[in-house]
Write a structure and sequence with these properties.
The chain is mostly helical. It has two domains: 55 residues, no CATH class; 114 residues, no CATH class. Helix content is 64%, strand content 4%. It has a two-stranded antiparallel sheet with strand order 1-2. Helix 5 packs antiparallel against helix 6 and helix 5 runs parallel beside helix 7. It is elongated and about 65 Å long. Keywords: Membrane, Transmembrane, Transmembrane helix.
Amino acid sequence: KSMSDFSSRDLSVSVQRSSLSGKGSGLSSKNILGSLGGSSNFAAMETSGWWLFLQTLLYIPSTPQEMHELILENMSIAFMSLNLGYVVILKYCLQAFSCFDFEGTKYMYFNADELCYTPEHFQIMTAAAAGLIVYIAGTWFMFITVMRVLKQTNSFCKKRPLLLFGWMYERYESKCYW
């Protein structure tokens, strides 16, 4: 069954049914998860959509290898997001420094209502400069750190790191860049 097959109503009905019948494995949700409004059967909870959702959401790996793979997956997703937004964020940060001249008065390029080199414009430029420094330096620092770790662990030829991080380094020739 999938999570969409269950609802919170299904959970409450099956919990009520199992608590009225008195049947169960002897383990109650009160003993394991605290009180959920009565002494109910843990087995009924295991088949509910909410329990499946919580197991997926709060997945804790049982081995160090699984933990390592989970960390790699989460890092890969974050790096892909940073990579996709890189050009767009840089574009908007750089636009804070662009002004155009109209009849002797300078206006901001992306907001023609705002005059250039006013206190408000300096605040915008300060925020944009901080964004440029943090985003450019931070993104490159993270990419270089991942590449260094993959190189130290000889993971470039392994399947899993290639699937997760190959988009970062597959386009470069090792003789030119390493």
